[in-house]
Amino acid sequence: ERIKRAEEKQRVTSQPGFPATRLRRTRMQDWSRRLVRENHLGVDNLVWPFFVMEGDGVRQPVESMPGVERLSIDLAIQAAREAAELGLPAIALFPYTEMGLRDAEASEACNPANLICRAVRAIKAEVPDIGIICDVALDPYTSHGHDGIIVDGEIDNDRSLEVLVRQALVQAEAGCDILAPSDMMDGRIGAMRTALEDAGYINTKLLSYAVKYASGFYGPFRDAVGSGAMLKGDKQSYQMDPANSEEAMREVALDIAEGADMVMIKPGLPYLDVLYRVKKTFGIPTFAYQTSGEYAMLSVGVENGCIDRNTAIMETLMCYRRAGADAIFTYFAREVAERLKAED
Ligand code: PBG
């Protein structure tokens, strides 16, 4: 028996590279793991998206996103202040537009006194040092829930561009720091960049949702902005086919040429291969969106006791970093920022 064991040990230890290489050596202690860690997650890598609504002192839970609420502007200011105190570099605002203000032309998107513009002005006045990111897309404003304008039963690219450019200018005027077109119309980055330059907004940044897939992971977001129930059909004629990644590279190349400062890959977790390729190929600031569906999956898994909350959240965010994300939009941003601060 002893001889057999000795022979077995001899067989194992004489394998090439062993024991010269024992990858477990550096894994043994916490300090050692920290010393060889290849990627880091900090508060600077997080963007906190939240939803604003009309009213005063109003907070309304979003049912499909446990722990997420729509906030009236006064409470949104408070949230922005907390975000700034936690060191979060930026927040992203999304409006819940009153149903009566939605129409086929998304007129309210271009109203300089609309909810989002008032929220931006109010937050800028009270919390000047946090970056504000606004979506450029028409779905919170249309009566049909699509991101563009419908002409003869189709989402009309060039007609949509006209409205999107006006929406972009109105939001820039309100003081939005980063415009984030998430509509997936062709040519919108170039059209917006030209319009911004012409209007003197030369420092307004464009974060293009260059690679946005027609995904099943946006459902809870559509509840949050109230567009889900109104949506007729799907978004496959403008958002990308999940089967494609060569096309993603073309989208990014075009948007960089048209003047994007940063690009977004969305959703996140199922598309880390695309994120990795984009970052490696273009080297441009590359963001990823941990979408509402990803948030809901994790939250519900945690609620059901199947998943450990902290471990799963920190792990997924680190995986985004490892794949190449410079920043991650996540509804967990405040919670994670608090944890990172406590660990400091
Ligand atoms: C609007 C928009 C969507 C999201 C961000 N901007 C939804 C969609 O395109 O249908 C999704 C965000 C999320 O799911 O968290 N165009």
TrEMBL record:
Keywords: Heme biosynthesis, Lyase, Porphyrin biosynthesis. SMART domains: ALAD. GO terms for molecular function: porphobilinogen synthase activity. It comes from the Bacteria. Pfam families: ALAD. The keyword Lyase applies. Its EC number is 4.2.1.24. Pathway: Porphyrin-containing compound metabolism; protoporphyrin-IX biosynthesis; coproporphyrinogen-III from 5-aminolevulinate: step 1/4. InterPro entries: ALAD, ALAD_AS, Aldolase_TIM. It catalyses: 2 5-aminolevulinate = porphobilinogen + 2 H2O + H(+). PANTHER family: DELTA-AMINOLEVULINIC ACID DEHYDRATASE. Homooctamer. Belongs to the ALAD family. This is Delta-aminolevulinic acid dehydratase. It comes from Methyloligella solikamskensis. The lineage of its organism: Bacteria, Pseudomonadati, Pseudomonadota, Alphaproteobacteria, Hyphomicrobiales. The gene is hemB.
